[in-house]
Design brief:
CATH class: Alpha Beta
CATH superfamily: Aldolase class I
Helix content: 40-55%
Radius of gyration: 19 Å
Number of helices: 11
Number of domains: 1
Number of strands: 8
Structural class: alpha/beta
Strand content: 15-25%
CATH architecture: Alpha-Beta Barrel
Length: about 220
């Protein structure tokens, strides 16, 4: 399974890239707003840090013409940019056109398997079910992911399942066991994946014993 980091913080991206654990980046308007920087500048810098992995950049228009205008603009900036388009009727039109023009699309704000089916039929490169937000309203986000994977396998769709709104290592484990293609995680969750109390206890013991070794 591939890992993407869900952030617009270039420092976090550089740290995870140095650890060798990420394959791409997802961003959204909320994440970019936190940086206080121009979106175009942030996007280009991220693409330079992760030159070979997909970097998702989300449109802000909600009409077809506006989405396509932004999609074409983003796609021209760097070859590895993937355009994020919301799962709306107008968005599906844009996904279709992007697929015809060779622009890769990550369809975002997906909450049902049937939405995911429509996105795949329109030609999406990635579908992003938001598991954490489904959990927040007492639904089972990971069940939706399993249903999407089953539907895609039934019909041979090439759209990759990108598990989004990941809140914990448990979400990551479940996604991997289900065979999801990608999990996009905030920096904190990616770092939590490295941790276990027995690792800390074992390391402390080894270091304490090392102090007893004649130097």
């Amino acid at each position: 399974m591939k890992f993407f980091i869900d952030t617009a913080d270039v420092k976090e991206i550089r740290e995870c890239a140095a650890q060798g654990i990420i394959d791409g980046v997802t961003t959204n308007p909320s994440l970019v707003a936190k940086t206080g920087r121009r979106f175009r500048d942030v996007l280009i810098e991220i693409c330079e840090v992760i030159p070979h992995g997909p970097v998702s950049a989300e449109v802000t228009a909600i009409d077809y013409e506006g989405m396509m205008r932004e999609a074409r603009e983003y796609a021209k900036l760097k070859d590895n940019i993937v355009v994020k388009i919301p799962l709306l009727p107008e968005g599906l039109k844009a996904v279709r056109t992007c697929a015809q023009e060779g622009i890769k699309v990550n369809v975002t704000l997906c909450f049902t398997p049937t939405q995911a089916l429509l996105a795949a039929k329109a030609g999406a490169s990635y579908i992003s079910p938001f598991v954490g937000r489904l959990d927040d309203v007492s639904e089972f986000g990971m069940e939706v992911v399993q249903q999407i994977i089953t539907i895609y396998e039934n019909y041979g769709f090439k759209t990759e399942v990108l598990v989004a709104s990941v809140r914990s290592p448990t979400h990551v484990l479940q996604a991997a066991l289900m065979g999801a293609h990608v999990a996009t995680c905030p920096f904190t969750v990616l770092q939590q994946l490295t941790k276990h109390p027995l690792t800390d206890i074992g390391l402390a013991k080894f270091l304490k014993d090392w102090e007893k070794v004649p130097k």
